[in-house]
Every structure is written in C-alpha cells, then in structure tokens.
C-alpha cells in the first residue's frame, strides 16, 4: 500500500547523520597523500600534501586564502603555500588535529599549539586546548595558564583562572614568605599616639628610636639615627636564597585585577603588599612606574601594625622608602581643626594676604613640598571651604575624621573586606541517635582544636546540604522535605529564596562565579516519593531559581563538588541501585558528561571534598548496605581513582570539608565496635551517631583524631568558612 503525498509530507522531519568513519577515512587519504590538491610547506621546507576543501572547512586562515586571493588562481598554477612562521613540527600537529580529530597534548606544548591554532584559526584545536587547560589548573600551573588565557583572549577561561588565583592566592607566594629562612625587611607601623610620644621623647633629648634586627627568629638591636618625622621603625635584612613568586610573571593588568578583588583570599593584607614589592622588583626598570597604581589595590585599614617585607635583593630594599612614604600618607590622620577666628582677626588676616600675594604663593609651595604635606594642605583647604559644624562653645580643638575633610581614601574608592582564607568549620543541623532533627550548629577552630556552639537555625533540619557562596554559608533543603534556603548572616540565619521543589539528600555546590547549584535529591511529586535528576541554579542577586540541564540519571544521597569550572555528581542512589559512577557538568557547554573512571565501590550517603584540584570521597554505604571506611581520590587531569588509607572506622552520612591543607571528616553513622566512642547509643545494637572528627593530611596520607563535637550528629551540613 502506497502512502499519499500529503501523508508523506506530514511525516517529514530532519534526521542528523553521524558518520564516525568520515574522519578516519579523511585521515587515511591524507596519510597516503591520495586526492590531494594543495601542498602546505612548513618553515623548514617540509611539504604536506593536503585537501583544499578539508583545510578550508577546518581553518579560517585557509578558508580566506582559498576563497579570497587563492580563488583567482587559474587551473594548473602553483598550489603550494609556504608558512614561514610555523615550524614543520607544529604544522604537522595542526594538520593531524584537522584530519584525525585527535591529538597528543602536553602542558609544555600548549604555547606552541595555541600559537599555531590561533594563527591558522582552527576552532576545534583551540577548543581542545582550552579543555586541556581547564584540566591542568593547579597552584603550579595557574599563572602560566592565566598568561596564555590573557594572550589569546579566552575570556571565559581567564575569568575562571582569576577566580582560582584569588581563592588560592596564599599558595601562589613563595614558601620562604611563610617561614623566612634568611632575613626580612621589618616595617613597624606606629599609631598616631606612638608617633606623638616619640616626638615628645626626642624633644626631651632622648635618642632616636632603635631598629630591631630580626634574623632566623633571634633578635638583636642596632641603633640608627632616623629623621624626627619618621613614624616607622625599619630594619633591612637580606634573604640569601631567592625564590621567585609566580605572580611576578603576570601582567600589571592581571595583577591589579587580582589584588583589587574582594574575593582575594589572604591570610593578611600584608601579603598583597608583598606581592606588589616582588612584582616590581622582578623587573624594576620597566615596572617602577606602576608602583603607585598597584598600591591603590592595598587596603591600608586592614594592614597589621607590624609589616614584614621579605627582601631578596637590593632592589627590594630600594622600594622600602617609597613604601614608607605611601604608608605615611595612608595612615595620615588629619590634625584637629582649630576654632574659627574671631571676625576682626579674620578680616585682618584677609587684608594681610591680599596685600602680599607672594606670601600665599610661598606658603602653598611650602605646603606642597611632599606628598604628606599635600594631603595636609588638602585637608586644610577642605576645612576652610567646608568647616566642621559644631554646637560646642569650647575653644578647644575639635577632633574630626578624614571624612569631614573629604579626603579621598587611600587605595581608591571604598571596598568591602577581603574574603581571607577559611578559618573555621561549621557543622549545621543533622539528626541525633533517635533520628530527631537538630537546629543547632557548631564551629570548629583548628588552631586550638576546639568546637563551640554556633548560631541556631530557625527550625530543626537534617540531610540538608551547605556550601559557601561568596562570603556567605548557604543551607539548602533537608528533612522533613523542605524547599527552604537559609543564609548565615553574622551570627544568625536568615531565610532566602525558596527552591522550586522541596529536596532532601541533594547535592549542593558553589561554582565559578558564585552560582549555587542544587543537584538531584529526593522529593515528593503528587504525593509520590521520587528520586530527582533535575538541577536548579541560583545566581547572586537573582530573583529566581533557574532550571539547568538534568543529570543523566536520578541521584539522591549523592556527594557533589566543584573543580575548575566543572561540577561533579558522585555516587548516590537511583531507585534501588547504588551508584559508583560520576558525571560532570561543564559550565561552559552546559551539558553533563559521564566520566569513564568509576569509583572502586558503589557509594551512597557518602561525603566529598576538594583539595588542590583533587576530588576526595569518604565512606558511605554500598549496595549491600555495608558502611565503608574506604577513601578514594581522583585527579581530573589523570582521570583515574586511587585508594587512600581508610578512616579509623566505617561511617556514612558524614560531612567532609577542606580547611588549611587538611581534609576533615565529621560526624555520621558508624558501626559500634569496642573502643569506639559515640555520644549516645541508638536503639540498634550495632549503630551509633558519631561525634568524633578525624582529618586527613594529604601530604602524608594519614588520618589523625581531632576534638569531637559537643553532640553527635549524622546527616549534617558541613563547610569551611
């Protein structure tokens, strides 16, 4: 029976063909030099027979060459093209990428590959390089990759690398800055009262302040005469072993962007000042002129009273005096404003100045003889034009702030505080041994190894997840099924925009750009419990949760993490099956991709954290409902999982977070065995809720016990703040 024409037309639809053999066949034709109609010659004269149509389809350079100036070549004319700027080796790699759609790539060859890919305008090779660069991000590679991203205008990748550099700023400074092996330049910033007291001592005949010389933690004193107006103590000490800071190799624009960011995670604002000194000293003849601009990125109000500047070279020492001048201006406190002159005296002064204008000129020249005097003059002029209002009848000087004088704040416009490195862990919610949800939280200080009570939630919740977005801790969902989102503001929790669906046992992660992603979980749809594969995303300042592409499979009781612009969904439960698979969401292409590498064990109710670009997974429950003590780690750059030493006991529904080069595992359900301490026993003979904490030191590959929480909790939210 034949279909009518109208019926056939109704069934017409577009079908995409995926011929996997085309690229392999093109590669065979190219390698055997069959049907080639053009010859490309490298820098050394080596010839590569190619196909004009293939090159034009893959390369913007060849397309313009063949369809532009090359289009007028008559048949039989020379079809050879020499590329004087590309070596035969690099040209061979580029042509292999075009024909084979595959390439062997290494970090050391990235620069050459990007050079030829950009010159020949090969989008597929450029995309492959960017993908490889994202997988190479680490403390040692961040700066070289950032320079490449800037050079070739990879804006999205550049943004991600800048955010990574901000978050790992302390890892980009030389280790000698943390524990000086040699000598350092010590600049002690004195308060205004200290400077006043020193001046009074000098006026009374006391000797000049002594400079303390510090060397390898030992102290000695070295008397030295200083100008009376110097408000700093300094000592110049040399560091015998020079170590170049990675940030010395970035451009001024990139360094300025990093140092000006509120997201810059620093131990102390003096780290920013040290980075500037190192950068300028690295190439002083070219960079001296940028010192003033870079110093505008420093927050003087966050600088400590005592500054330690590491001096590797004589050039470092030469920068100390400009730093002192800048610090003098930055710490300048306007002198008290004198009371208004009586009308008759004010009139006489005005007449005197009008009769001798040269006096006014010489006065202004005198007052502007130094930068500090310039600020003083600016303050006096502002006080004259905008006198400080006062209802006091006292003739005593009235102290005012810099704002009264309209003095521009040092370092540019007012900005928020730096993020600073995470200093604490916060454990939120969870349930006790009787499955009662908790509304309490606890804070852990690793310096003293102590837990203390934290802000309480407005309602009890368990199996919620938390993540740090910008400078805020966010708590999402939980049991009983909730769509609530809360944000920790100072010392209390405040409600935020609700999820579109109530979720518990979901994965929550903060991604590049400060966006918050919620992955899968369990919910109730039309009074039916369902495991979700949907994903929601919230951007800071947004007004709604945005639906993102679904995961490939539904997952609840999963772990999640973010590394270099990619989000990972790890393990979890799908129906009755427990997963060992991992899938990755690429923020650039906005699609989920399954990873070939699977964990050695299927895991649900597991915990994950990230340290130095590596993904760590702790414990959980397998499909046989056995709790696990095993730990696995994966480096996305290697694409394989490795076993690590196990935890002291099996545990599930625990929390994991990275803090100060350690990975902490907190709380959870455990199997009770002799010698294991839990806060209370559950009704089950073999199950307890854990209060103890252990931490993994990745450099040594060992776990050690830490102080336990005040109360055991399982199904908790945990993050570093």
Characterization of this structure:
With 721 residues, the protein is of the alpha+beta class. The chain folds into three domains: 21-136, Potassium Channel Kv1.1, Chain A; 175-330, no CATH class; 425-720, Kelch-type beta propeller (Neuraminidase, 6 Propeller). It is 27% helix and 25% strand. It has 20 helices and 38 strands. The model is unreliable at 178-241, 332-338, 356-414 and 674-686 (pLDDT under 50).
Short characterization:
The chain is α+β, with helices and mostly antiparallel strands.
Q: What would the keywords be for this entry?
A:
single chain; 721 residues; alpha+beta; Neuraminidase; 3 domains; four-stranded antiparallel beta sheet; Kelch-typ_b-propeller; SKP1/BTB/POZ_sf; repeat; BTB/POZ_dom; BTB domain-containing protein
The helix count comes to 20
Let me know the number of strands.
38
Q: Provide the residue-averaged pLDDT.
A: 75
* Beta-strand residue fraction: 15-25%
Fill in the CATH topology of the largest domain: Neuraminidase
Distance between the termini: 72 Å
- Roughly how many Å is the radius of gyration? 33 Å
Helix content: 25-40%
Tally of structural domains = 3
CATH class of the largest domain: Mainly Beta
Low-confidence runs (pLDDT<50, min 5 residues)? 178-241, 332-338, 356-414, 674-686
